[in-house]
């Protein structure tokens, strides 16, 4: 079953828009900006810009000689971004556009445009075919322009990836596609296939670490993941019931029969991720990839 990514994003993120910034997202956006090392005068395309967390910080760094274009399909998220623009210092060098980032070719404002930097924070796993999306985006980079993107660690937010397996087995996928990214090399491969070179990845924490916001404290080696929660195999029913009520997952339980099918599969998949002691370790982290467009 093919989902409509734009419709999913509009529905899911309009509802989240007013509380989106009351989370770890602002600090993570700051770290994405630091990792891509923006410079004054650069041009930036911020895809899935949401509430403008990356766009507005980028605009301050690139300054009046640079520019930022932010694109998102969610009118609710963009309303929050525009609200920030009206209350913060002037941002004459940033523009927001409501459009699907799966179809950039129809964005009139991007015709003949090439950018020094493309950013996409906390969104790649929303695409059923991320490799195709990356290939399209890379075309909007200047030669040796750089792109930064992230994909969630498979053991982070563990119930989500278990529900993803359930949805796939039922032929009724959820609007999140994390299974292709089991290790950082999986992200590197699709970035290289999209025409990027000198690709590097690192593991970055998303959730807040008490007492620090320094990027150096949030970047770890792959085997240094921080355990955020420890579940037991017997927790499956509580986790299922909590998840199935959300907008992301309620389509798996439109009636009692479909809920029971999903519940049975969830128990099986939850058990599969437990270790020999029946424990499930949920870690905190995303793979962040940076690559450069090959010269013409």
UniProtKB/TrEMBL annotation:
Report the residue ranges that make up the Methyltransferase domain in this protein: 39-152
Q: Which domain of life is it from?
A: Eukaryota
Q: Which InterPro entries match?
A: Methyltranfer_dom (IPR025714), SAM-dependent_MTases_sf (IPR029063), UbiE/COQ5_MeTrFase (IPR004033)
> Which Gene3D superfamilies does the record match to this protein?
Vaccinia Virus protein VP39
Record-level Gene Ontology MF annotations: methyltransferase activity
CDD domains of this UniProt entry? AdoMet_MTases (cd02440)
Q: Which PROSITE patterns match?
A: SAM_MT_UBIE (PS51608)
Name of the featured protein: Methyltransferase domain-containing protein
**Originating species:** Acrodontium crateriforme
